[in-house]
Amino acid sequence: VRGEVLTLFRRLQELSERHREVLLPGYTHAQVAMPSSFGLWFGAYAEALVDDMYALGGAYRVVNRNPLGSAAGYGNSFPLDRQMTTGLLDFDSPVYNSVAAQMQRGRTERTVASALGGIALTLNKFAADCCLYMCPNFGFIHFPDELTTGSSIMPHKKNPDVWEILRGKCNRILSCENEIAMLCSNMPHGYHRDYQLLKDILFPALELTHECLQMTDYMLAHIEINEKILENPLYDHLFTVEEVNRRTLAGVPFREAYRQVGVEVNEGRFRYGGGNPATMKASDLGHTHLGSLGNLCNDKIAALMAAASDWK
Hints:
mainly alpha, two-stranded parallel sheet
């Protein structure tokens, strides 16, 4: 999984750099809000994968402890060298207490499922974005015909079936942690046959995670973006905050600038004074702080990922 996360991370960073100047409408409350960019959008999901990699590394450290020699959970009278088997099998350390070793059943699986769920949540949200952005009412991104499907009766449709199936599979992965917790929550310590069912939950989730990561990367290798989104008058109010800030920096008190722009919007005469939105690039907005439209910090995010993925 680590290698596939890194592959997708690099894909997202490459797309972020390639399309860093192309503006994209940002939404809050499903309403047109403020200017974003494709660079910011792709880069956001790349950085989200950094957090997912930290969680995956944490799960690895929980799992990579040696329970061997604890037998049924109470040790045994053979003169075992558990430190030796720990070193030979490249575990980080033993699980020292034999009862604690037995109690890891279910705990390790739940920890791994939680880490997989973090990845699934990132992919799920990205898939949901793509389903929305592919809709003709938005038209922000496109994919080749062979990666979309038509309707059984509506000849004009290009449905985002791949993203929809991927979104649904990610929801199944997300459910695994809770399923494992429910399976293990009402047993006293010591072995119980219920634990055998853990494999039926976790192993398919691992396979689904591999598939979802690979398919997301494959789809992104064929994504096409719309560079003329802001020519649509639907986004005429996208720059109201920029206009308020522009007037404030020119000396108008923020409260008064906010009132002025609000009145102009209500009267249908608002115009952004900082340039023509239809031809603007991300760097034209003058956002310079860390992680903004004009300062994506992709190199710093790459350094974070390098640290997050170094588990040894």
